[in-house]
Amino acid sequence: AATTAALLAVLAGGLGWIRLVGDMTVDPAAPNAPAAAGDLVELIKGNSYDNQWLTEWPYFSIPSVLSTGLLAHRATTAGLPILVGAMLLLVAGLPTAAARRRGWRDRPLLIGLAGVLGALLAPFHFFYFPAFWLLALLYVVGGGRLTDARTPRNALAMLAPLVLAAPFALTPVLQASGSGALKAVLGWESAPLADGPAAVAFFYVTNLGVPFLLAVAALLVPRTPWRLFLGAWVAALFAIPNLLQFSVIAFDMNKYFQAMWIAVALLAAWLIRRWPWPAVGLVLLLSVPSPLLVAGWTAWNREQLMDWNGAAAAEWIADNTPGDAVFATDGWLNSPTDAAGRLRLLTYTPYVANLGYDPDERARQVHDMYCAGDVGLTVRLMRQLGADYLLDAGRPADCTTPTSFGEGGDLVQVYANPGVRIYRLQGSAAEP
Is the backbone peptide bond immediately before 58 cis, with ω within 30 degrees of 0? Predict the structure, then answer.
């Protein structure tokens, strides 16, 4: 059961692969035929069949753990193991009331370590931080440990580490509340709500696939171990995106479905633990193609990666600039400054907005630096915002009048390769 659960948790997903089957059978000459229709390799290289935006029905908008978590999303790559580890420590350290009656004892050290990991989720993962504390509460309540003689001691061990999370959690919560990013919703925006309940049900069944259906079936079996807690885990994290939104981009609430997937994998694996191997193989055959197809797409796709020029620039930045240097960049998702561990004036604006801050003014300033055609304005803005360097590896969208940074004398080119140029601001704190 454990081996099957691990396979399902990491490698399984929904039924997005059926889109590939459809694309393989479409006549390439037909109207609206997808690019490379009928060409298996080109279709895999050009399409993310686990998570495709802006497509016609059937819709697949819930990324699997493998596709967006372990291959592409750094926060989830760290955050999901932290979430799982914290829950394991809590379960090992705080036995249920029934287990205590059988002789199990509390282990405050493990409870405290669970609290530490739960608190450290705040800087690692915007969505999993509250998810852990909700799951911890469900476990404590469901295990009958909310109110007993040891509750004060255990609560102190568990909650004291939250002081570590305060600098990362309080400001975003207050900012999001004031900005309107935190709101109640009736249904997740990425689901086809306008098409009616049947379409929404079809969407979730096909997006979550066979493991989800098996998990629901396991919850109907009275002897399923930890049925109430795992059922609460699935129900709570499924409900959150359908009832609340605290992300500027509603699609990003899909991270809760990935956190839900851990419980789904456990329930499904238990249900099929004694099935014949051919039947288990069929479950895997229906469940793993979509994440594996995304693995193939990720291997060929370059939109999510820095190229070799960016990697070389990152190495130079790390070796030749002060650790507290601040860079002006184009504000795209990835930048050589990130790999080098340096600050930049603007990152991907939806990430800024998710923390409750309005990125529009800073985005306008950065756009003016790169696209106003006035290097004097670029220099004034860099001094105003405290930037030491400017990285020219690409321009923001709608850059009609690109600025020539080599004009004047205030910006000195200190590094160049075929794809990246770096300028230092004369008179900045970083000037040697």
Answer: yes
Spatial neighbors of 118 by CB under 8 A, at least 6 apart, are 86, 129, 132, 133, 136, 158, 161, 162, 165
Summarised one tens digit per residue, pLDDT across range 236-279 is 999 999 999 887 778 889 999 999 999 999 999 999 999 999 99
Q: Determine phi and psi for 392, rounding to 5 degrees.
A: -110, 90
Q: Which residue has the tokens 């570590």?
A: 164
Say if CB 351 and CB 249 are below 8 A apart: no
What is residue 298's three-state secondary structure?
helix
User: Which of 375, 359, 385, 360 is CA-nearest to residue 410?
Assistant: 375
With both helix axes pointing from N to C terminus, report the angle between 128-142 and 227-243 in degrees, rounded to the nearest 10: 140
Are 335 and 366 in contact, with CB atoms under 8 Å apart? Answer: no
pLDDT score at 179: 53
State the Rg of the chain over Cα: 25
Report pTM. 0.84
Six token digits for residue 298: 């990720």
Write the CB contacts of 388 (distance below 8 Å, at least 6 apart in sequence): 321, 322, 325, 326, 327, 424, 425, 428, 429, 430, 431
Measure CA 281 to chain center.
29
The CA-to-CA distance between both ends of the chain, in Å, stands at: 61
